[in-house]
Amino acid sequence: MTYMSQEGYDKMIAELQRLESIERPKASAAIAEARDKGDLSENSEYDAAKEAQAHLEDKINRLKMAIAEAKIVDTSRLSSDCVQILSKVEMTNLTTKAKMSYTIVSENEANLREGKISIKTPIAQGLLNKKVGDEVEIQIPRGTIKLRIDKISI
To answer: What is the model's pTM?
Structure first.
């Protein structure tokens, strides 16, 4: 089971519909076009089109499984007392004094450009269940970082 926001769930549904209604017919058309070019044993276009279709079907199946396992979190029932999934955490790097802000989301919703990090990342794991004012040391691939939680919101 994967906990996620309504917004993330809606994006996955839209992506699944796009893949099934637009990309799948394109893949079938590419296979048909390549098949019309003759001998399939030496037809690299046909092989490439079949491989692309297999990747597409795999992506569709993974998306369907993620949707089936999704549990939408009711944000009105969340508290900003401590860090949890869908919390927006504002913090200070105690070494560099840099301010950072991340929203902790499911793996499927993670997007660093939007400031959304997966709950499975070392930073998110180190922040879970911490409160405003807590200072944490988190082991990341580049070493250890020290963070102070300044604000938690939903």
So the answer is: 0.72
